[in-house]
Amino acid sequence: MEITLNQVLVLAAAMFTIGLYGALTRKSIVIVVMCVELMFSAVNINLVAFSFYSGLEALRGQVFAIFIMVVSACELGLCMAIAILLYRNRETVAVDELDVMKW
After folding, report:
1. Burial readout 11-39 (b: 16 or more C-beta within 10 A, e: otherwise)
2. In this predicted model, what pLDDT tens digit does every residue of 13-24 receive, in sequence order?
3. What is the pTM (predicted TM-score) of this model?
4. Sign of the C-alpha dihedral, residues 91, 92, 97, 98?
């Protein structure tokens, strides 16, 4: 049995929707970052699927997916550093209680 493009797109859409719901409803900055990473993974699945099913020999989708993984790793490291810094200063990682940018 072969996996079709529609099945892959439904999987990616479900992953993106779960990630978006989690990013909008959770209060912990760590969980919000994990949900954003889930959305990046859904985008990577779409890129690789379109590259595979387009029939072209070029690996454009895979190259973009690797680029997104690199950016995602950098973003994760930066977000975790900010979360640790905020926890040390404010003793909370709840997104609702952070007002660092306010005067």
Report:
1. ebeebbeebeebbeebeebeebbbbbbbb
2. 999 999 999 999
3. 0.82
4. positive
